[in-house]
Amino acid sequence: MDDRVSEALPPWELSRDNHPLIKERVKAAADTLFHQIASGQYSYGTRLASERDLAKEFSLSRAAIRQVIDFLETYAVVKRQPNSGTFVNYVPPKNGFSVANAKTGESHLMDIRAIAETASPLEMNILCSIIEPEMVRIAALYMSVRDLANLRSVFDEIEKIVTDAELFAHLEKKFLMTIAEGTHNRLLITVYRIVTEVRRQPHWCATRVKSLTPERISDTQNRLKSLYMALENHDIESAVEFMKLVIAGAQDDLLNAR
Length: 258
Hints:
This protein is 66% helix and 5% strand. It contains 13 helices and four strands. The chain has a two-stranded antiparallel ribbon. It has a two-stranded antiparallel sheet with strand order 3-4.
């Protein structure tokens, strides 16, 4: 472990502003969690342990753990995703996201949000065409019974939708992110979380929602169902082909919505 990383100061220690008032034991837990993140125990984009597990680890109530998460989120150390969990949003200055200048020795952090806000449809289409077929190939090999149960749970919600385009777009992202998590490849999961962050940008969401007529929702449901069934059967080649159909359908929807 890099001592410079393990000794990283929490952002609330560097801020000149008064931090939110919290109990000492809550702050102590926040300090410990921050250092676990800074040391790489939780890398960027990974999901924190559940509230129940954290409560047990720190001998705190779940209500107190929620205060810890609130505090960390105030300083952008973590980010909550509805119905998905809490994910690490902090990038240590000396980790793999740091880009060093060979001449000056200076390092600059990659600004994920800036990338997400400026990514073009062409860039997104190219990236998804490269990543997503291979992502489902790996998922078809490694998804566990629990992974498939989680994916089925998301799809069951998707299957109920008839006209709610906004909810469908949200669950579609969740479905694909669940597949990414089923690869159990931390680097791939992190990269795909960036893809998901792009899709969460307001202009992307608005375009996707606009494209989702009841007919398009039904078509996409059928594609996702075929993809789920291929993954459930660990049918690698079929999963890849159905993922390509999902990508093609999303690209057509994007073009028709503009």
